[in-house]
Design brief:
Layout (H helix, E strand, L loop, with lengths): L1 E4 L8 H9 L10 E6 L5 H10 L5 E7 L2 E10 L14 E4 L13 E5 L9 H9 L8 E8 L2 E9 L4 H8 L6 E4 L28 E2 L5 H13 L10 H13 L14 E5 L5 E5 L24 H5 L13 H8 L1 H20 L2 H18 L8 H5 L6 E3 L2 E3 L2 H13 L2 H4 L4 E8 L8 E9 L5 E7 L7 E5 L14 E7 L4 E9 L4 E4 L8 E4 L2 E3 L5 E7 L16 E6 L4 E3 L4 E3 L8 E2 L5 E2 L4 E5 L20 E6 L5 E7 L6 E5 L7 E5 L22 E4 L6 E6 L3 E7 L4 E7 L2 E5 L6 E7 L2 E7 L2
Parallel strand pairs: 2-7, 23-26
Antiparallel strand pairs: 1-15, 2-3, 3-4, 4-5, 5-6, 6-8, 7-8, 9-10, 9-11, 11-12, 13-14, 15-16, 16-19, 17-18, 17-20, 20-21, 20-22, 24-25, 24-33, 25-30, 26-29, 27-28, 27-31, 31-32, 33-34, 35-36, 36-39, 37-38, 37-40, 40-41
Helix pairs in contact: 6-9, 8-9
Length: about 750
């Protein structure tokens, strides 16, 4: 029997590992970026001031980033309180692709903050680094910024929250995406708090900005759910990420956020599972740099340093102007998870002085550049003492970071919630130890506590999906041994080659996760598998000219390679290779722990975008002709295919599936190949309508430039449905058998794959 011994440990090597992986990237934490802006307009500062006060337009310039020149970029000032036309050092937004299609290391936008209100100069970078351990957030570091050769000063540089960010973290980017910041100047009555107003979308336009093409009705539905249907929130929001957000805001006194007076500086994105996900941004006033907690719809709620140090765990618990906090604090399990997350943050980041060590490293790294910054807002001496001294900034006092955080730990450790005894999870076992694919097994967890327990496992078989929760029992009826022996069990099915999971246990007083950072971090276990051998996995299908069919998680239409497992065992493809070059067979290494199910499919994007998230190679296919080689870890060729000139949206695959010769066929992405008559569109390269997603599960959509009738047929020629489409229309496939369908419209036919 396999036993997984659980140890709560802080991974202090995160920074080192990330730098080994990413090298000197744009957001490498251990290097200061060099950004040289050139603006040839004699009155460029006046133009940017005018644009900031008006329509916030860009002026054209060039920028050199760490020695790489980009011309025809857009430059503008940004910020609210941090911007002032009389200042030399204003926050900046550089849009590399504003006037010309170009990116730096796949980033199109550079956002630079000027350190306003922060004597320590490190608040934003430090806060993002701590937050990254618990939820998805932008990367951040420092940059020396010059304009026309003049050193303007040291800035913090934070990754833009855009479609690339969404795809990187949520594996899609085309769904409802909302920036939650008041459009007008925020005040106590102006909050982006998800409070339901009424059914009229216009009533929300003052408080939110929909960044996606559509989404206002969904935002109203979300606000209605948060305010009026709190018990059902887990079906529409990722509540674990919501709880992490609220826990971080409270622990680190990040009040220029949902938890503060304006309930602002957060985004929400609806992922492909239908759940809204929170994203925190603008952390330059974290650690008490913005002391306004708010109260109701009238008060700014100004806090003293002592008030921040002793900020209540349940602040706004019953204040209806913060309905998301109401929901978490009124649900006993969610509240216990909130306290568990708070404990984790304070134990890992503060109790062992991790935050202080990192803060000192950051200040040491930027010391010389801060000293040389003649436009900084605080003296060099205040920068040096920004960790341990409080300073008056305008009308309030900004605490030294350690003055705030250390006292906060002391206060929280004295609260009833933090002193409550937590359950103790010691071991996790599976019976059998090596679980075969698609079979049932028992998960056993040893948990001890001083009072009645509830234990559950969260699990999933695909990182793009949400965790499902199943309760474990200590009743002697779930293969858990004797009743009340502190061994909890439940039966699960290994429905995928790789399972990701975590354990949560709670009493009436406290809850605990293992690993502690769940759901952001989790354990993994694979089904019983074998290493790849010659012929066990074959190249099954190739699409080298994909135009408008399958799209990757970045909403790009890319070419792909489909592999098929001919065996009846899970095969570990990790450290095998794909290549398009016989003299360089190890061109792209398949990542470790990449498994393919028995008689299953694995589709890999061949788009020369290996930085992307879901299996993208570092080479692209050519529609004119090409080769694909699959090689084993020892570099020996396991399978290969050569192809000539390809037809748009027509794949080249094996028939019979997995064993036959290659032939042209209709695409069957991740599905069994067939030899049904080819469907070739007369306008395939430029259709006036499209259907998506493809493959589909319970529904697909047709988007059309002109009104037309769309008909759907199965592969036996039977009409499934016919609908008039004006601009966009949904088609339900919930009751259709899985398989292939023909979608016919004006002069164009698509082949749709339905999977359930």
């Amino acid at each position: 029997m396999k036993s997984l011994i659980l140890k709560a440990s802080l991974v202090l090597a995160f920074l080192c590992c990330s730098n080994i992986l990413f090298g000197q990237s744009l957001y490498d934490l251990n290097s200061i970026q060099d950004i040289q802006i050139t603006l040839t307009q004699p009155n460029w500062d006046y133009q940017m001031d005018t644009a900031k006060y008006g329509a916030e337009g860009y002026i054209m310039g060039s920028v050199t980033i760490n020695g790489t020149l980009y011309d025809s970029v857009g430059v503008k000032y940004k910020g609210n309180s941090s911007f002032d036309s009389t200042r030399i050092k204003n926050p900046l937004h550089i849009a590399l692709d504003k006037f010309k299609e170009q990116k730096h290391q796949n980033f199109a936008d550079i956002k630079l903050s000027n350190g306003y209100g922060d004597p320590s100069m490190i608040r934003e970078v430090l806060a993002y680094q701590l937050l990254s351990n618990y939820m998805h957030c932008p990367k951040a570091n420092f940059a020396k910024v010059y304009i026309n050769g003049n050193y303007i000063g040291l800035y913090s540089s934070a990754e833009n929250i855009d479609k690339k960010f969404l795809s990187d973290h949520f594996y899609s980017s085309n769904n409802t995406f909302v920036k939650c910041n008041p459009i007008v100047n925020p005040g106590p009555t102006t909050k982006s708090n998800f409070k339901y107003i009424n059914a009229d979308t216009a009533s929300y336009e003052t408080y939110y900005e929909v960044k996606s093409d559509e989404g206002w009705p969904e935002l109203v539905t979300l606000c209605d759910s948060v305010t009026n249907h709190m018990s059902g929130l887990e079906s529409i929001m990722d509540m674990d990420r919501v709880i992490w957000m609220l826990a971080f805001n409270n622990a680190m006194i990040n009040l220029d956020s949902y938890s503060g007076v304006f309930a602002q500086n957060h985004y929400t994105y609806k992922d492909a599972t239908g759940h809204f996900n929170p994203v925190i941004w603008d952390l330059n006033m974290c650690f008490g740099g913005f002391p306004f907690a708010g109260a109701g719809g009238t008060s700014m709620g100004n806090l003293t340093v002592t008030g921040m140090q002793q900020f209540a765990l349940d602040n706004h618990a019953t204040d209806t102007f913060w309905p998301l906090i109401n929901a978490v604090q009124s649900n006993p399990t969610w509240r216990r998870k909130y306290i568990a997350h708070m404990r984790t943050i304070m134990q890992e980041m503060v109790a062992g002085n991790y935050y202080k060590s990192l803060a000192t490293q950051l200040q040491t790294m930027i010391d010389a550049d801060v000293l040389a910054d003649n436009n900084k807002f605080f003296s060099y001496s205040k920068f040096q003492h920004g960790l341990d001294s409080n300073y008056v900034v305008g009308s309030y006092t900004v605490p030294g970071i350690s003055n705030l955080v250390d006292a906060r730990l002391s206060y929280l450790n004295g609260t009833t919630d933090f002193m409550a005894s937590q359950p103790v999870i010691t071991t996790i076992n599976t019976v059998p130890a090596n679980v075969p694919y698609n079979t049932s097994f028992t998960m056993l967890v040893n948990v001890s506590a001083s009072s009645a327990l509830t234990v559950s496992v969260g699990y999933r078989f695909d990182k793009t999906k949400k965790f499902e929760k199943v309760q474990l029992f200590d009743d002697g009826n779930h293969n858990d041994g004797s009743a009340n022996d502190q061994v909890f069990g439940a039966s699960l099915t290994m429905s995928g080659p790789l399972m990701q999971y975590y354990i949560y246990a709670e009493t009436a007083d406290a809850g605990v996760f293992v690993p502690q950072r769940a759901e952001h971090e989790f354990y993994s276990m694979s089904a019983a598998s074998t290493l790849a051998t010659a012929g066990a996995v074959v190249i099954n299908e190739v699409l080298a000219d994909n135009m408008g069919l399958q799209k990757d998680e970045y909403n790009d239409t890319e070419d792909w390679i489909e592999l098929y497992n001919t065996s009846n065992q899970v095969v570990d493809l990790g450290n095998c290779y794909l290549s398009d070059n016989a003299t360089h067979l190890t061109k792209w290494k398949i990542p470790p722990a990449t498994y393919i199910a028995p008689n299953g499919y694995l589709t890999i994007w061949a788009d020369d975008d290996s930085w992307q998230q879901i299996l993208h190679t570092n080479f692209a296919l050519s529609k004119d002709s090409g080769h694909v080689y699959l090689s084993l870890p020892d570099s020996s060729i396991s399978d290969q295919v050569s192809f000539g000139l390809q037809t748009t949206n027509v794949s080249y695959g094996r028939y019979p599936n997995g064993s036959g010769p290659f032939m042209t066929m209709n695409t069957t992405y991740g599905y069994q190949n067939d030899n049904s008559p080819l469907v070739v569109s007369s306008h395939a390269a430029n259709p006036n309508w499209t259907c998506f997603p493809n493959p589909a599960q319970n529904e697909f959509f047709v988007r059309s430039v002109t009104p037309q009738t769309i008909e759907v047929y199965n592969m036996y020629g039977q009409k499934m449905t016919s609908q008039k489409v004006n601009t966009q229309q949904s088609f339900s496939t919930q009751h259709w058998p899985a398989g292939l369908y023909l979608i016919r419209g004006a002069n164009t036919t698509y082949k749709l794959q339905v999977q359930h």
